[in-house]
Write a structure and sequence with these properties.
Strand content: 5-15%
Shape: extended
Strand order of the largest sheet: 1-2
Radius of gyration: 44 Å
Length: about 550
């Protein structure tokens, strides 16, 4: 029903629900399931040769825009046909695959964030916060996949090892724009954001007494920077010679007021440590942390850090001019870090590979187009801090980071293990392993023979020494050996028991020796040294002789 305009009701037609119709069948045969080939069920990993022949590069929005502009402004105006998307992806794919691995090998520690602590040898990388290269299974060193920044899990606040790619907070939140620390003038290193959206070094926040972290597990955000006294900002750093460029701390030595920035002190190798302190009286189970920072003059003698700057003329072996030049070099290095300039190591492609790449495409004016494409590719790689543009090659870089973590967990590294899985490389690797094992076996055999000759030489030297010091003992030993060889029936092996044989001592004869001469008991006596002389006793007839 529906109300009309005059207040009456109007009847609407009846609407029924749809009825279900079905028809019973006498016989029903269910359809057979679709057969799936075995290669769809089992994953077969492609070889390196197959992956190299496949085009893996996928265009993004920037590539579409750049190619549209080039085709419209440079090719259509000259009457040239436009470059297809497939040719563009093929050329970019070859550029990536022909030079990616060389670019990764040539990557330097100064790239990206520019922490400068990773070094050329990744196995010797040290944490940019605590300046320590030791790592355990629960506190490994992580490397940022964009700037290659090395940090400990606990130092940077990463309680769990991430799966796949890991980037630091600076590269995640501000990958293009440089950031500045609120507590020091250096613009590179391990950063975390503050509560006000600004940035500060984790190391500066750790050693600054007034600053703390809102979350003690993730070590972010950094707070209470406004509580730092203004007097700390007015102190002049004796390393970079700057004032009002950050908050300084002073040497932990009593009566030493030398001031320096935390990052400046770490850059020149000052002793800046977090030392555990136990209080057995109040809380034996609780371990406190003591923050110590010494200048180069008061560096402890047992410290593992060696400052590269020396301002003590009494204990310095360099001349005044050498000290001045050394300080100048240190300040130039700090000025480069304070500028925040990013040095990205870009890959290169050889001329032969570049010409071989041109033979894969066939369209007019391909040389001019490839020159512009090469410049565009380099700019795109520079925008990604030198990282590959193909996802698989980027994952290869991530796998290298994970291999470094696994090597730290295992504590060893096999330098001859093959990098790929081809049969030829594995056979060559097994051949090298067999040769190494054969060399080890030969070395063990030579060592055994050497030790055997040394043992014989020591035995001869011992006999020569005993013969020179105790010649009678050696002669008696030889005589006793001959006597034992003649006594085949062991008649003189043990002494005669008078009680057992029923023998008696005739009257007038001396008493039988309680320890008579025999081959068994007296055999070892000559080797122990000469015997004490027996007491002299008289024989019948008045003759005196030793028994």
């Amino acid at each position: 029903k529906k109300k009309g305009g005059g207040g009456g009701e109007t009847m609407i037609g009846h609407i029924s629900l749809p009825q279900v119709e079905y028809k019973p069948l006498d016989h029903y045969t269910p359809p057979q399931p679709h057969s799936v080939p075995d290669q769809y069920r089992t994953f077969v990993e492609k070889t390196d040769a197959e992956l190299d022949a496949q085009v893996e590069y996928i265009m993004d929005d920037i590539d579409y825009s750049w190619l549209a502009i080039v085709n419209a402004e440079l090719r259509e105006k000259r009457g040239l046909p436009p470059v297809s998307h497939s040719d563009f992806e093929l050329l970019m794919d070859r550029l990536e695959k022909e030079c990616t691995f060389d670019g990764l090998k040539g990557r330097q520690s100064g790239g990206g964030n520019g922490c400068g602590s990773a070094g050329n040898d990744e196995d010797e990388a040290v944490c940019s916060i605590c300046q320590d290269g030791e790592a355990v299974c629960t506190n490994v060193i992580l490397f940022c996949d964009m700037c290659d920044l090395p940090v400990h899990q606990e130092c940077y606040g990463v309680p769990y090892i991430p799966e796949g790619q890991w980037v630091c907070r600076k590269c995640l939140l501000s990958p293009q724009e440089p950031v500045a620390c609120q507590l020091c003038p250096i613009k590179t290193g391990a950063f975390k954001q503050t509560t006000k959206g600004k940035w500060a070094h984790v190391a500066c926040a750790l050693w600054m007494p007034e600053v703390q972290f809102a979350n003690a597990v993730f070590l972010e955000p950094i707070e209470l920077i406004e509580c730092v006294p203004s007097a700390r900002f007015k102190l002049q750093c004796y390393i970079c010679k700057k004032r009002n460029a950050g908050a300084c701390i002073q040497c932990s030595r009593a009566n030493c007021f030398t001031a320096f920035h935390i990052s400046c002190g770490q850059s020149v190798g000052l002793h800046i440590k977090l030392e555990p302190v136990k209080d057995p009286e109040n809380s034996p189970a609780l371990v406190n942390v003591k923050k110590v920072a010494f200048c180069d003059v008061h560096t402890p003698s047992d410290s593992d850090r060696t400052p590269i700057i020396n301002t003590d003329p009494d204990n310095c072996k360099m001349s005044h001019e050498q000290m001045k030049n050394n300080s100048k070099k240190v300040r130039q290095s700090l000025a480069q870090k304070q500028s925040g300039n990013v040095t990205v190591c870009l890959p290169e492609i050889s001329v032969d590979r570049y010409e071989e790449m041109l033979t894969r495409v066939s369209f007019p004016a391909k040389v001019q187009f490839c020159q512009k494409l090469l410049s565009y590719w380099l700019l795109k790689r520079q925008a990604r801090n030198g990282l590959p543009l193909i996802k698989r090659l980027h994952m290869t870089h991530i796998q290298k980071q994970q291999e470094r973590k696994s090597q730290q967990l295992v504590g060893s590294r096999d330098p001859i293990q093959p990098a790929d899985h081809t049969i030829g490389d594995r056979l060559a690797w097994l051949r090298r392993v067999r040769q190494g094992l054969e060399k080890s076996r030969l070395l063990c055999e030579l060592t055994r023979k050497r030790e055997k000759l040394k043992k014989e030489l020591n035995s001869i030297s011992e006999q020569e020494f005993l013969l020179a010091c105790r010649p009678l003992t050696q002669i008696l030993n030889a005589v006793m050996d001959e006597l034992r060889a003649l006594d085949k029936d062991l008649i003189f092996h043990y002494p005669v028991d008078l009680v057992q044989v029923g023998a008696t001592v005739p009257p007038g004869l001396p008493a039988v020796d309680s320890d008579p001469q025999r081959c068994h008991g007296r055999a070892a006596r000559p080797r122990q040294g000469p015997h004490l002389p027996l007491p002299r006793r008289s024989r019948p007839g008045g003759c005196n002789s030793s028994s």
